[in-house]
Amino acid sequence: MPIDRETQEQLTNLQVQLSDFDERLEFAERRTQAIRHQNFVDNFLSGLTDLGALGFISSHLDWKHRASPPNPKSGFQRIFADTDNSGHLTSRNSSGSEIDLEYVDADAIAAVEGEATLVLSGDVKVVASGKFFEAADFRLDSATELTLDASGDIAITQSYHRVDTLSDAGTGNLDGMTGGNDGAILLIRPENDGRTVIVRHNQNAANAKNILLAGDDSATLAGISDYIMFIYDVNLDTNGAWIEISRSTEASAYFDADAIAAVEGEATLDLTGDVSIAVGKSLAVDTINEKGSGTGVTIDSVLLKDGLVDGMDVAAHLNAYNGSFFEPMTFVITSNGTTITGTLDKNPTGDLTEVFSDGYTTMSSGATVTLIAGSATVPKKNYIYVLQSNKGVLVASDSDWPTTVEHIKVAEVIVQTAALVQSDGILANRNWDDHAQETDGMGHHLDAWKRLRWEHAAYQSGSAVTWSGSGTAALDLAISAGQAYQMHLHIIAAFDTTDPDNVYVVNQPAPNQYTATANIETIVVDSDNDSLANRYYNLVIWNSISSGSEEEQVFINLPSGSYNKQSDAENDVSGYDNFTIPTDYRGYAYLVQRVTIKHSSAAGGSWTITQETDLRGTVPSIAVGGGTLAITTEFSDNAFKLFDDENPTRELAFQLSGITAGNTRVLTVQDVNGTIALSA
After folding, report:
1. Which of 234, 258, 282 represents a domain boundary (last residue)?
2. pLDDT band with cut points at 50, 70 and 90 for residue 92
3. Within this chain, do residues 409 and 483 fall inside the same structural domain, yes or no?
4. Which candidate, 612, 609, 610, 607, places its Cα nearest to that of 474?
5. Among 453, 483, 509, which residue terminates a domain?
6. 299 occurs within a structural domain
7. Residues 334 and 470 occupy one common structural domain
């Protein structure tokens, strides 16, 4: 329907009025918002209004990113999302200074790392598992001084302290430390180099101030360079205690048990210095190897290298014992009348060690073997041994020892029948006891050397005899230097009665035994104290051998009788000569000469040498130790004659050819004095 002009104008006016109303309404809304904003700021700053309760803040506030705004008025801070700082919330004051309110990890780390000195008033804790605190330069606060109180305590206030004695005493005992916190580390040292602090173990048991030291060993802090470090543990000693971590004193901060456990648990212990072990202690190891290739191992200046000891092949030398038992043994024979049994045992008890070139093995005591019996008239010799190829088993042979294989000789036994062995015993049993050591601890080699020394001394060279003065009133004896063996070869000094050297007359009649004289002519009686005047007699001369620097001595044995006839004396037909060397000299004395002397009392007396018999290198015909020569009691009828003691040209010879062959005739002398009448 067409609108008239008037109506159209009215509608246009109404539209203008409505537009004006909208503008007024929008202004009113903006005004209301401005009032509310001012109220928000006032209430926010005053802190008297719960903004959430008024509906101004429901759960969050949103800031639009923008560049730094103008400064707020004095007394206000302006917060905005700063586009110049990655949108971080930033606070700006009236002077234009800005603070970043939104710290992320990288920012915090960069800020802390960039801080020249970070001063914190609280604790720093790293709580996450597996995390750690790392510092290029970790320092404790400068040490402060603490003084021991009358109870021997100090009160800990930091991690590093200097400790002084009470009243500056020379020595003080530190028995307790209060102020411990779980996990706290503490380092202490003496305050004064001239005063000693002794930290003592467990003096306050179950008290929170107690000190527990490694190895239960007190620590002596004798100087300002002596330190000890602790950690506090609230779970120890009931109420907590300070536990030693380490100490710098006494070089024993690492105690015996700890050191032993550490060393024993080490697969390879590499040391650059020496290892010193106290006297009486030992180093027990299974194997010692050289450290440097080809250097060997030196023990007390003895080099062990390539199986040699100071260049000597000890193992090769020990081969000398192959075919023996290390220990002494016994081999005993028994018989039950049917079987002869030999039983081998260690002396005194235990098992034997067999020694062969392939090593050492154990042979049980009590091993037995059956011997080969002989007869009553033909005994049987048994050779008892152990073969290397059949260790631990005794073998009996009646032929001989093995000649081509290793074996241990046990015994040689001579037996008759089993019945005779049971009733009368064996004929002989020689044990081959070649052990290394006696039951008394003495070495077996000494037995061998002792046996050798029991042999007679052996002459080697020299000791030539020269007599002077024969046929005169004075005889002199000279013996040149020589050599002879005891066990070892010795030099025998020269001897000369003109020097004068004395001879010793061993068997001079009592009480003058061992009379010493340089005058042979003064020997005027025999060993039975019978006169040698106008008689023929023999003197036996022998030398001793000395091992030291002393000179050897010359000895003379007197005969037990003398002769009227020179030939009888030279042949000693009555066995008067004495070749005995006393037992005490056995092994270090040797025979030198037998000399035949004729004494004549005419013209004041003279002594004439009629014969010299060299005895050097001979063994006394009687076993040394005493006795006389065995006297022959049967002689050929032309072996000797009797001569008159006043006129030796008057002689009596014997002739037995008239006796019938096979017969012995007895000539009996009547018990009266008289003259035997003979037929023509």
Report:
1. 258
2. confident
3. no
4. 607
5. 453
6. no
7. no
pLDDT category of residue 203 using cuts at 50, 70 and 90: very high
Phi-psi region of 211 (alpha: psi -120 to 50; beta: other; left: phi over 0): beta
Q: What is the pLDDT of residues 104-132, one digit of tens each?
A: 666 667 666 667 677 777 777 776 776 77
The answer to whether residues 187 and 330 belong to one domain is no
Per-residue exposure over 230-246, b if at least 16 CB sit within 10 Å of its own CB, e if not: bebbeeebeebbbbbee
pLDDT digits (tens, 9 = 90+) for 211-255: 999 988 899 999 999 999 999 999 998 899 999 999 985 544 455
Model confidence at 270: pLDDT above 80: no
In SS3 terms, 436-496 reads as CECCCCCEHHHHHHHHHHCCCCEEEEECCEEEECCCECCCEEEECCEEEECCCEEEECCEE
520-525: which pairs have CB atoms within 8 A and are 24 or more residues apart?
A: 520/474, 520/475, 520/476, 520/477, 520/607, 521/473, 521/474, 521/475, 521/605, 521/607, 523/556, 523/558, 524/599, 525/558
Closest CA to 553 of 515, 523, 527, 596: 515
What pLDDT does residue 360 have? 94
Q: How many Å apart are CA 513 and CA 584, to the nearest integer?
A: 15
Do 417 and 487 lie in a common domain?
no
In a domain, 310, yes or no: no
Residues 510, 586, single domain; the answer is yes
Range of the domain at 83: 62-114
Residue 633's pLDDT is: 55
pTM: 0.50
Domains of the chain: total: 5
Asked whether residue 121 is assigned to any structural domain, the reply reads no
What is the C-alpha separation between 70 and 93, in angstroms, rounded?
10
User: SS3 of 61, please?
Assistant: coil
Classify residue 93: in a domain, yes or no.
yes
